[in-house]
């Protein structure tokens, strides 16, 4: 299909409740959306970069610059499909979240053109997804326990809480004291070092499904050392940028679970490579979240249908984050904690362009030759 134009825009959406990690607290999301215009069809993608370069080196502003100056021009005026788009970005090093935004928009447009569900085009096999939730650091332990109670009542199958030094062992002990048998995990977002091994060993008493990314974002070897000293499974997140990293982590026995985020690995093409490596190594996957709007959430749903996504992911209901989402229908979770996968063409969700325009604070359309 011929890519005639690309629209990039920034929207701002206030969160229903603040979300805090070891990186800081977020109350409003600045989100970069990409629209690929081709043969009368519009494919939509979302850049999951944050407001600041804290999770990784990208931010919404670096992504705008790279898409506007490099990734957009690389595909404009070209005949592109889902198999050829990713190699067009090879000259640009890094900037995976920016690449994923454009690539996912192309995949969406092609699925619409083929009148095919995106998840089937990806090779997905799951018709129903198990859902967990990620709960940020709260103002008090009591507030955290109240939030967990709400999410369990909603049916979510796995609770993940953010931890950092000073908000970890006693918090986990309080949760386990109230709910001894729930599926529980924690996410440290690189808040610890190997000097904390003895402290991290205390986590073993809480029967956690996993400890996610406790150490440096760029160090697989250190996680291998730590995994050898813990009973609890480690899960890698920020350390895995592509299939080669996944293979290195598997060989080093650096983790027993691996989270795949579409933006972090650069799009569907690389996500499928990571999933294949993990499937071969016997390492289960799940989909991590980045406070996406409904567009990014819809792409996560499609990715989560891949065979090796066997653990509950962070693909939860729209209403957990937004008073009003920018897709119809909004993402909903059943009382048993599952999402049904749609057979409609594309992502299976309609983009609410009127609401997107309302939220838009800047917008630019670029065409071939500009």
Q: Could you provide a short overview of the structure?
A:
This protein has 370 residues and is an alpha/beta fold.
Spell out the key features of this protein.
single chain, 370 residues, alpha/beta, Enolase-like, domain 1, TIM Barrel, 4-stranded antiparallel beta sheet, 12 helices, 33% helix
Q: Tally the helices.
A: 12
CATH homologous superfamily placement of the largest domain: Enolase-like C-terminal domain
Number of domains: 2
For the residues shown, what is the average pLDDT? 95
Sheet with most strands: 7 strands, parallel
Radius of gyration, whole Å: 20 Å
Number of strands: 15
For the termini, the CA-CA separation is 20 Å
Unreliable segments (pLDDT under 50, ≥5 consecutive)? none
SSE order: EEEHHHEEHEHEHEHEHEHHEHEEEHE
The largest sheet has its strands arranged as: 5-6-7-8-9-10-11
Query: What gross morphology would you assign?
Result: globular
Structural class: alpha/beta
**CATH class placement of the largest domain:** Alpha Beta
Which CATH architecture of the largest domain is right?
A: Alpha-Beta Barrel
Report on the architecture of this protein:
This protein has 370 residues and is of the alpha/beta class. The protein folds into two domains: 128 residues, Enolase-like, N-terminal domain (Enolase-like, domain 1, 2-Layer Sandwich); 221 residues, Alpha-Beta Barrel (TIM Barrel), CATH 3.20.20.120. Helix content is 33%, strand content 22%. It has twelve helices and 15 strands. The strands form four sheets. It has a seven-stranded parallel β-sheet. Strands 3-2-1-15 form a four-stranded antiparallel β-sheet, sandwiched between helices. Strands 4-13 form a two-stranded antiparallel ribbon. α4 links the parallel β5 and β6. The relative contact order is 0.17. The model has no long low-confidence stretch (mean pLDDT 95).
């Amino acid at each position: 299909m011929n890519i005639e134009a690309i629209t990039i825009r920034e929207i701002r959406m206030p969160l229903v409740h603040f979300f805090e990690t070891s990186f800081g607290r977020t109350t409003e999301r600045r989100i970069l959306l990409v629209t690929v215009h081709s043969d009368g069809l519009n494919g939509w993608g979302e850049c999951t970069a944050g407001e600041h370069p804290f999770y990784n080196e990208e931010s919404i502003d670096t992504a705008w610059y790279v898409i506007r100056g490099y990734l957009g021009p690389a595909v404009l005026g070209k005949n592109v499909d889902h198999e050829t788009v990713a190699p067009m970005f090879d000259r640009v090093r890094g900037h995976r979240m920016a690449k994923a935004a454009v690539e996912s928009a192309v995949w969406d447009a092609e699925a619409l053109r083929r009148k095919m569900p995106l998840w089937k085009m990806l090779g997905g096999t799951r018709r129903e997804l198990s859902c967990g939730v990620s709960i940020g650091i709260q103002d008090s332990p009591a507030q955290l326990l109240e939030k967990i109670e709400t999410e369990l009542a909603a049916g979510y199958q796995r609770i993940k809480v953010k931890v950092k030094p000073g908000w970890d062992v006693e918090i986990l002990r309080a949760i386990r004291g109230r709910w001894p048998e729930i599926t529980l995990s924690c996410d440290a977002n690189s808040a610890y070092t190997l000097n904390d091994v003895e402290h991290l060993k205390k986590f073993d008493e809480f029967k956690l499904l996993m400890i996610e990314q406790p150490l440096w974002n760029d160090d697989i070897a250190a996680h291998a050392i730590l995994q050898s000293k813990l009973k609890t499974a480690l899960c890698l997140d920020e350390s895995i940028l592509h299939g080669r990293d996944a293979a290195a982590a598997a060989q080093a026995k650096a983790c027993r679970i691996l989270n795949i985020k579409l933006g972090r690995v650069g799009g569907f093409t690389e996500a499928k490579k990571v999933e294949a490596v993990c499937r071969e190594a016997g390492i289960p996957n799940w989909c991590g979240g980045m406070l996406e709007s409904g567009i990014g959430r819809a792409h996560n749903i499609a990715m989560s249908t891949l065979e090796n996504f066997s653990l509950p992911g962070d693909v939860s209901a729209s209403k957990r984050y937004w008073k009003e989402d920018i897709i119809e229908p909004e993402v909903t979770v059943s009382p048993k904690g599952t999402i049904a996968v749609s057979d409609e063409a594309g992502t299976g969700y309609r983009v609410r362009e009127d609401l997107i325009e309302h939220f838009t604070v800047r917008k630019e359309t670029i065409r071939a030759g500009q």
